[in-house]
Specification:
Elements: E1 6-16, E2 19-30, E3 34-38, H1 45-52, E4 60-65, E5 68-69, H2 74-80, E6 81-84, H3 96-107, H4 113-119, H5 135-149, E7 153-157, H6 165-180, E8 184-188, E9 199-202
Parallel strand pairs: 3-8, 3-9, 6-7, 7-8
Antiparallel strand pairs: 1-2, 1-4, 4-5
Helix pairs in contact: 3-4, 3-5, 4-5
């Protein structure tokens, strides 16, 4: 995944509507490193992840990969990242295997669907349709997309929502393996997710003081 890869936020400021969500936010991650975003609901964690993914334009500052502003080549930036948000995007009529296979075709992935099923403990659910899955099972299916995509940068918004302790452990191992191969992870959490050695960023530290 490129040992010299670096991912940075430089003086990021985000405005949503008339609200200044955060300002002058900085971090720097090298290959194999992770950043844990913390803060209460509504503090701006999701907004930051969307800025990092190129889905929201910052009011000021820049997001950089390998020292270069990602806005210089957004197509390349989108090709290197995997974003898992709050919506699991699991179609009710598709089986788990069909869902993963459709993502693989869409993404042009050569990685076998069986690898994704195994990685997220979904083999026994491969023939189950989305409409029959629990919230936690749908979440694991959504996270299996990370295995299908095989991207260098993972942006994860509350990835353990709805998961039991055993499933959280699966996600933690998935993240650890990704980091061991040089991948970079930015994940928001309210707790319950272990990422040993990760940096921590409290979004509240970058919110504008009330006038």
């Amino acid at each position: 995944m490129g040992e010299d890869a670096t991912f940075e936020a430089r003086g990021l400021t985000c405005l949503r509507g008339r609200r200044l969500v955060f300002e002058d936010l900085d971090f720097r991650l090298a290959a194999g490193e992770a950043l844990m975003l913390v803060g209460p609901n509504g503090s701006g964690k999701s907004s930051l992840l969307r800025v990092l993914a190129g889905l929201i334009e910052p009011l000021a500052g820049a997001v950089a990969w390998g020292g270069a502003d990602v806005r210089e080549d957004m197509e390349a930036h989108r090709a290197r990242l995997a974003f898992v948000g709050h919506l699991d995007a699991v179609k009710p009529a598709f089986t788990v295997r069909e869902t993963l296979a459709s993502w693989a075709r869409l993404l042009g992935s050569a990685d076998p669907v069986d690898n994704a099923l195994a990685a997220l403990g979904l083999r026994s659910l491969a023939a189950v349709r989305g409409a029959e899955l629990s919230a936690g099972q749908k979440r694991r299916v959504a996270l299996a997309r990370l295995v299908v995509e095989r991207r260098a940068l993972w942006l994860l918004d509350e990835p353990t929502t709805g998961l039991d302790a055993a499933s959280v452990a699966i996600v933690e191992r998935l993240i650890e393996t990704h980091r061991m191969t040089g991948g970079i992870v930015v994940a928001s959490t309210h707790g319950g997710l272990a990422m040993p050695g990760a940096q921590t960023l409290d979004i509240g530290d970058y919110q504008a003081e009330a006038a």
